[in-house]
Amino acid sequence: MLGKAHDAFAAEFDELIAHSDVPGVSLAHYRTVLRHLDDEPLRASQIVGRCGVSKQAVSQQLTQLDAGGYIVLRPDPSDGRARLVELTDSGRRAREVVRECCVQIEQRWAAMLGADDEALRRALTTILENRRPPGC
């Protein structure tokens, strides 16, 4: 059931983002890259370490976000082999829109369930706080 709920969330997210001013951004872009970037540039390797997906997956996301103008990739002056990743203004806007989409979905689902936002948030928080570690 949770898998189906996740699929429903992703479909609703895709619909909202398609009608936004950042239609080229996916939930994967946010999960893999955008949520890890703030005002300071990060090395691509740091993003890999934070997001828990493969180096290749991050590299693909970085290429797509760079092509879309959401990030800038440049060599790290302290290590020519490393790349620095920095948000552009469009990237900051994309991150904001994604967060807004998530809030809209959460609010709609809470209303659909007849619960206030806090009840749904408490239930999800309880699930996340009590999940089993990987490998169990």
Would you give an account of this structure?
This protein is α+β, with helices and mostly antiparallel strands. It has one domain: Arc Repressor Mutant, subunit A, CATH 1.10.10.10. The chain is 60% helix and 12% strand. A three-stranded antiparallel beta sheet has the order 1-3-2. α1 crosses α5 and α3 packs across α4. The longest helix has 25 residues.
The whole-number mean of residue pLDDT values reads 88
Level-1 CATH class name: Mainly Alpha
N→C terminal distance: 20 Å
Indicate how many domains the architecture comprises: 1
The geometry reads as globular
Count of extended strands: 3
**What can be said about the biggest beta sheet?**
3 strands, antiparallel
Query: Per DSSP, what share of the residues sits in E-state strands of 2 or more residues?
Result: 5-15%
Structural class: alpha+beta
From the alpha carbons, calculate the radius of gyration and give it in angstroms. Answer: 17 Å
- Given as residue ranges, the uncertain stretches (5+ residues, pLDDT < 50) are none
Order of strands, widest sheet: 1-3-2
CATH architectural group: Orthogonal Bundle
- The CATH homologous superfamily: Winged helix-like DNA-binding domain superfamily/Winged helix DNA-binding domain
- The helix fraction, in percent, is 55-70%
Tally of alpha and pi helices: 6
CATH topology: Arc Repressor Mutant, subunit A
How are helices and strands ordered from N to C? HHEHHEEHH
